[in-house]
């Protein structure tokens, strides 16, 4: 079983450091040790995948005048970083507060999953003072943990639409 980065959205969302800028170190290949953090891209990906309500009429998409948000075939959101200007209209339009203002930096460094370059664990794991990022093996049926891709998982309560009651 391969190790994955596991981001805990509950801890990350409650972190006060995130409101002033995440203090997590990053080893992004093209800009190592830069001031921008790939963990924000991980947080955005996990939030859009697990927390987004997948509204039939998505006010966040309608509010974006730059066409930076798009609905994926599974109903989740994808933000096109090169179109996004960080105006936060989408966050203001979301009736559920799913899109956090600090997830929308004008310039966003993606996470390149530097696991292969850092066998002892990526620097984001060691530098997160709150323990919101882990590097470990994840069981497919581990309660509260959702596998998002080969090298990424997230701990969060996944939003599931319930069928209407009669």
Query: DSSP helix count?
Result: 6
Structural class: alpha+beta
Q: Largest sheet, if any? A: 4 strands, mixed
Give the proportion of residues in helices. 10-25%
N-to-C order of helices and strands = EHHHHEEHHEEE
3D structure, described in words:
The protein has 166 residues and is α+β, with helices and mostly antiparallel strands. The chain has one domain (3-155). It has six helices and six strands. The protein has helices at 9-14, 17-20, 38-50, 59-63, 89-93, 123-127, and strands at 3-8, 69-71, 77-79, 133-137, 145-149, 152-155. The strands form two sheets. A four-stranded mixed β-sheet has the order 4-1-6-5. Strands 2-3 form a two-stranded antiparallel ribbon. The radius of gyration is 16 Å and the shape is globular. The N and C termini lie far apart (44 Å). The mean pLDDT is 84.
Explain briefly what this protein structure is.
The chain has one domain.
């Amino acid at each position: 079983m391969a190790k994955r980065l596991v981001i805990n959205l509950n801890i990350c969302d409650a972190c006060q450091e995130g409101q002033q800028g995440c203090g997590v170190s990053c080893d992004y290949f093209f800009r190592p040790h830069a001031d921008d953090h790939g963990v924000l891209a991980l947080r955005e990906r996990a939030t859009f995948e697990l927390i987004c309500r997948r509204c039939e009429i998505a006010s966040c998409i309608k509010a974006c005048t730059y066409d930076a948000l798009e609905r994926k075939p599974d109903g989740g959101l994808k933000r096109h970083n090169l179109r996004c200007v960080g105006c936060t209209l989408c966050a203001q339009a979301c009736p559920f507060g799913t899109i956090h203002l600090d997830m929308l930096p004008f310039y966003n460094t993606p996470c390149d999953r530097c696991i292969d370059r850092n066998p002892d664990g990526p620097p984001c794991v060691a530098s997160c003072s709150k323990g919101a990022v882990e590097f470990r093996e994840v069981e497919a049926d581990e309660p509260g943990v959702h596998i998002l891709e080969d090298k990424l998982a997230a701990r969060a309560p996944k939003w599931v639409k319930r069928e209407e009651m009669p």
